[in-house]
Specification:
Elements lengths: L1 H8 L5 H12 L5 H14 L3 H14 L2 H26 L15 H4 L5 H15 L2 H13 L4 H27 L3
Helix pairs in contact: 1-2, 1-4, 2-9, 3-4, 3-5, 3-7, 3-9, 5-7, 7-8, 7-9
Amino acid sequence: MALDELKSAIPDFAKDLKLNLGSVIGNSELPQQQLWGTVLACAIASRSPKVLRELEPEAKANLSAEAYTAAKSAAAIMAMNNVFYRTRHLLSDPEYGNLRAGLRMNVIGKPGVEKVDFELWSLAVSAINGCGQCLDSHEQVLRKAGVDRETVQEAVKIASVIQAVGVTLDSEDVLAGQ
């Protein structure tokens, strides 16, 4: 199992990450599609080749073809949106917020899966990418759709652990000269 291989690669100094990775994936109360879509989108957003290589096959096995594509789409569109909207928010001139974005984002309206699932994946990727405006926007859509705070937090926990595992493993590779 790829998850076990990934956990075994985590060094002893990051034992908490190893335990958290097993917990957020193995003990998640999210439905399978929400769980594995979040895992896949976050593995992509982590930018860690090792994390993506290990988690993608299991995600693919647990997702329909449509959900697999939608999770990748969430990671892709949020990679763009998080930079754009985070920059708009950080600029001191509020007039940028009045300008038309002019960027295609059609997948958000028609993701090919339940809107709630796509929004959850987008929120998790936005957590990794640090876009407060996107986090607020996706959280509000989820809450208006009846998603509870525990589910939102579950997705953020998955994002935080996957990101931390990627940073840890990739830095260890660099330190080892790989």
